[in-house]
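Two quick folds needed for the group meeting slides. Do the first one here.
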Amino acid sequence: MPPMPGQQAALDLAAPSGWRLAAGSHFDLSGGGGSASGASASASASASASASSSGVVVDIVQAMLDETLHAWRNEMHAQVQNLHLDLLRQFQMQQTEITAVLESWRLCDNRHLLEEIKALREENARLRQLY
């Protein structure tokens, strides 16, 4: 469902561990956050704390993405492997069916050829008697 005007969209980065970034939550990845009117030591400490929290947030997001992509890769690998096995089974079934059809055609054609040979021999025998 799309967000209403004025609402922030939820960024759902569900990893196998179940971590989520809910609507309204955001992380300041800019590395800033210090007060311009505060003392330089206060600004430096604030910037340092913001930078270290940004690094932690980046690490958490990176870990979530790694887990999610790893799980997705394993799932895709399993699905492709199952597809290959299914194709091999279908090919084997097709090969068996084609072999059976060719065998039945060979038997049918042989009977027909044997009947034709028999008829030709009889005709040859009659023609020999006439001439």
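Then this one, please, same format:
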Amino acid sequence: MMKQLAVMLACVCTVLGLKPCPGDTRGDRRCNHDSTHRVCAKIGIEGTSFWEFTGQTSWCGTIGYYGGPYGDLPRCPADQPTWCICKWATASWIKGEGCTDSVEFDCEATDVCNLKSSYSDFNVDLKPAHDCMMVKCKKQWDACPEPYSSNGANDL
């Protein structure tokens, strides 16, 4: 019980300490407004493979009309090319591209602990995202508690 409480408290503190993802125009720009958009990544740069490997069409530079103080600004513009992307999209991108220099995260604006404690998102295996995030955002990854195991392996 104490281990579960410690994990939950660490996750709450991590979410409260997230910095805004500069190019995101939803809400307060933090990657914690729903269960999947938890990774702040540079996707608004010329030549990114993000769109190819996620099967999406670029919305960067367009207006999302989300309301609030940032909602009418261009999404992931060239001067702030970041966006809170889905965990499944992160894994799909890395699975296709690899954990190369062209895959860039804003680690301070990414909910690394949420990703670390997630294994699947919309039926996509998150292992590629885990493997890359633990290298690219090592400080944040190492600060997260180990995911809870129901078999008792992580119990004190």
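Slide caption for protein two: Residues 1-15, 151-156 have pLDDT under 50 and may be disordered.
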